[in-house]
Amino acid sequence: MSDTATFEYKGKKIEFPVVEGTENEIGIDIKTLRASAGVITLDPGYKNTGSCESAITYLDGEKGILRYRGYAIEDLAEKANFLEVAYLLIFGELPNKEQLDKFHSDIKANSEVDEDVKKIVDSFPRTAHPMGVLSSLTSALTAFNPSCVDINSEEDMYNAIVKIMGKFPVLAAWTLRRRNSKPYDYGNASLGYVENMLYMMFKKPNEEYKLNPVVVDALDKLLILHADHEQNCSTSTVRIVGSSHAGLFASLSAGVSALWGPLHGGANQAVIEMLEGIKEDGGDTAKYMEKAKDKNDSFRLMGFGHRVYKNFDPRAKIIKKSADEVLGDLGVEDPVLSIAKGLEKQALEDDYFVKRKLYPNVDFYSGIIYRALGIPTEMFTVMFALGRLPGWIAQWREMRLKKEPIGRPRQIYVGENLRPFVEVSKR
Ligand code: SDX
């Protein structure tokens, strides 16, 4: 007899089955709650509510653990490359050389974007935020690739996956090139996946693009660290949009928009803007610590805190170490790095932050590396999206293959009770 949980309300006792995951996480399956007890649960922000069972990513927020398909993030960041990790997340196993080579060549064979998409890119103001442009272009792909994924066909699913893995970096690069008034480039098929991202973003029309291995390695590692993070806001968005059987590209476009928010992926841009503001204001970190703690001040210490991690975000640890290495290798002096380290030190010794278990998250140091790599601030969240793409795909694929029901939360109504209509002449 599997474990159960007893719910009692107004003298009525109901048993609900308990689900235990492979890492001993416990969930109470309340699928029959409303039918059997006539009540629903209420959990704004879903802080205590699981939306699914998933075999893709495991987090332990208390212990600061992150694993993709059982592999520790520390191992993957150190020993794997981003395309290997993308394959692992999507298909569940690390690829052998033949599988990886085929995956990459299929992606390259599908990386062309219809020339007419350039007209859409050109229609945006150069000052448009790249995340708004990228979300629109991703959605526009559905117009140029109208066939919906037949989830009963592994081949159809695979083809859709290599299509978006090929085209998304092109769209991201074109977004930047539009801002910089540079011609749009399809990249160079002889390059690696991450190398080609850099090539498409930064190649000047009149000179060879020289790849810096330090930059390539740093970006590859950052993309791995951003690749998936279980049911975060943007992934949950991709899942719920996909649960209506909207297409993969439409679901991903929604995920890009959700990621844009400064409380989520947009935090990496907000962190740098915050650090720059503190630098401009004389570098008085203590003043900003007080502002972050002041309930009457809307200022938050961006890059700090996390819904799940109540200990160090393991990605932040890796990125902080990488920031020192990359800036050292590139000979870049960035004053905001010492401001960031000063804030971190003060926060880790401050009761307000310690009591609320607020630690640096993935966004706190990542922008410092992106900046050292020559990536403009407004493109930081696009880089997050480039990393998160395989995670979104993997989660969408898992949800569709499991034939999950359409996502449709309930609510508790707190508005007006029934009242008679009143003619306008009598109001
Ligand atoms: C990402 O979910 C994921 O996995 C996301 C992500 C991924 O890989 O997909 O990890 C990526 O989005 C990382 C988070 C990036 N966002 C930021 O850095 C923005 C700054 N941080 C926050 O706004 C906040 O910490 C959240 C949004 C990340 C988490 O918010 P929660 O879980 O809803 O917690 P909360 O807002 O209720 O905060 C709890 C308390 C509050 O104080 P009290 O009301 O208890 O007195 O902590 C305080 C908050 O005011 N607090 C902060 C703070 N974050 C929380 N106070 C000052 N500065 C902060 N950054």
Features:
427 residues; binds s-citryldethia Coenzyme A; mainly alpha; three-stranded antiparallel sheet
What would you say this structure looks like, in words?
There is one protein chain. This protein is mainly alpha-helical and 427 residues long. The chain is 52% helix and 7% strand. It is built from 18 helices and 6 strands. The protein has helices at 33-37, 73-79, 82-91, 97-109, 117-123, 130-144, 154-179, 193-202, 213-225, 233-242, 248-260, 267-280, 285-293, 314-330, 335-348, 351-355, 362-372, 380-401, and strands at 4-9, 12-20, 26-28, 57-60, 65-68, 71-72. The strands form 2 sheets. Strands 1-2-3 form a 3-stranded antiparallel sheet. α10 (233-242) crosses α18 and α14 (314-330) runs parallel beside α17 (362-372). The longest helix has 26 residues, at 154-179. The relative contact order is 0.13. The model has no long low-confidence stretch (mean pLDDT 96). It binds s-citryldethia Coenzyme A (SDX). It catalyses: oxaloacetate + acetyl-CoA + H2O = citrate + CoA + H(+). Belongs to the citrate synthase family. InterPro entries: Citrate_synth-like_lrg_a-sub, Citrate_synth-like_sm_a-sub, Citrate_synthase, Citrate_synthase_AS, Citrate_synthase_bac-typ, Citrate_synthase_sf, Citrate_synthase_typ-I. GO terms for molecular function: citrate synthase activity. Keywords: Acyltransferase, Transferase, Tricarboxylic acid cycle.
